[in-house]
């Protein structure tokens, strides 16, 4: 049984529901249609006794695997946000509902996070019961580069990384590999890239007693990930525990180390406003469950586009990176020292009464 959607291939192979993201030229960036197809497929399989578990992968430019998902379709977000297209609102509401479904699915959900796993790709993998990385994995939540914040539940899963790693990943948008992803609790094990196809094929050909047996079979193929490449854990925990984004940047600049100076220079390129907003997001999310975090993020993303008409940091960030490609965003305010506290707090005021929130049904 195979369902071929425009950019999603969904098929039940043996006892496993297998999903392939099939938009390789865009690194499987999620469109609204893809979000809807994924949601419909998962809801169909959730109570289908023939489906013991779900596995998801991405097609790369050279065939299966090689790229998982680079995030949401930011060109669509720019076009929709610039023109007032109401599908912008639909996209975020439905994407976050999909993220929640994956976290609460009730059957094993096995994510093959090969290649690029960023933004929305994290949203459809972090809720999995088994999160697989390979030696080719490049993982990040790089939203501050485009004047956004790590959404899709990013507040929830980043805030649960050890120490202050969540703040560091969220503010800088730094990319990590397999060993760091496992150490930071963002992945469960390493499967060599060359073995993925054989494991995937076996999921469809073997018989399993139950869903846990499917997951255990995949986990039995894990190998040691080796040492972490992030050497600055003590520095991360020190600087990214400081009280606000201004203090973090200034302390890094005042230090003498190369890592500190490089990190400060990176932060100076990000949206100053969103550095403050993101730090607040991660710290608030530590005390929230997933549904609360997603409702908060839905409030925040509404404000990213509409809080300051004509002055959206997100539209400006996407313009600079993906539309005009001048790589020179005109952030407003221009410096982290110039961001007023009341502007940051405005991102966390819900535009909806609780009973009318788009994600009121999430539990």
TrEMBL record:
UniProt KW Hydrolase keyword: yes
Molecular function in Gene Ontology: 3-hydroxyisobutyryl-CoA hydrolase activity
GO process annotations (BP): L-valine catabolic process
Keyword entries, A-Z: Hydrolase
Pfam families the UniProt entry points to: ECH_2
Domain of life per record: Bacteria
Domain Enoyl-CoA hydratase/isomerase: 16-348
Identification of the protein by name: Enoyl-CoA hydratase/carnithine racemase
């Amino acid at each position: 049984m195979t369902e071929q959607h425009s950019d999603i291939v969904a098929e039940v192979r043996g006892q496993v529901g297998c999903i392939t993201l099939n938009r390789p030229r865009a690194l499987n960036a999620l469109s609204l249609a893809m979000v809807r197809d994924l949601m419909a497929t998962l809801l169909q399989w959730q109570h289908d006794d023939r489906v013991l578990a779900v596995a998801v992968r991405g097609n790369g430019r050279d065939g299966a695997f090689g790229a998982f998902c680079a995030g949401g379709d930011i060109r669509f977000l720019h076009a929709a946000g610039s023109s007032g297209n109401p599908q912008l609102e639909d996209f975020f509401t439905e994407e976050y509902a999909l993220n929640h479904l994956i976290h609460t699915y009730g059957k094993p959900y096995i994510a093959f996070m090969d290649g690029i796993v960023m933004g929305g790709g994290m949203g459809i993998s972090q809720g999995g019961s088994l999160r697989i990385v390979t030696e080719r994995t490049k993982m990040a939540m790089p939203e501050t580069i485009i004047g956004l914040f790590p959404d899709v539940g990013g507040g929830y899963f980043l805030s649960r990384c050890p120490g202050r790693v969540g703040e560091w990943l969220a503010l800088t948008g730094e990319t990590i590999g397999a060993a760091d992803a496992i150490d930071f609790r963002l992945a469960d094990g390493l499967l060599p890239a060359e073995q993925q196809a054989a494991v995937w094929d076996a999921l469809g050909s073997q018989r399993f007693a139950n869903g846990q047996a499917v997951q255990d079979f995949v986990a039995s193929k894990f190998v040691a990930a080796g040492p972490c490449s992030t050497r600055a854990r003590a520095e991360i925990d020190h600087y990214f525990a400081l009280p606000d984004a201004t203090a973090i940047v200034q302390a890094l600049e005042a230090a003498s180390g190369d890592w500190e100076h490089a990190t400060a220079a990176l932060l100076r390129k990000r949206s100053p406003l969103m550095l403050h907003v993101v730090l607040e997001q991660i710290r608030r999310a530590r005390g929230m469950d997933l549904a609360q975090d997603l409702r908060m993020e839905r409030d925040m993303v509404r404000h990213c586009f509409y809080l300051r008409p004509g002055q959206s940091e997100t539209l400006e960030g996407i313009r600079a990176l993906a539309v005009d490609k001048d790589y020179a965003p005109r952030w407003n305010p221009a410096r982290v020292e110039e961001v007023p506290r009341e502007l940051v707090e405005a991102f966390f005021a819900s535009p909806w009464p609780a009973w009318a929130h788009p994600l009121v049904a999430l539990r």
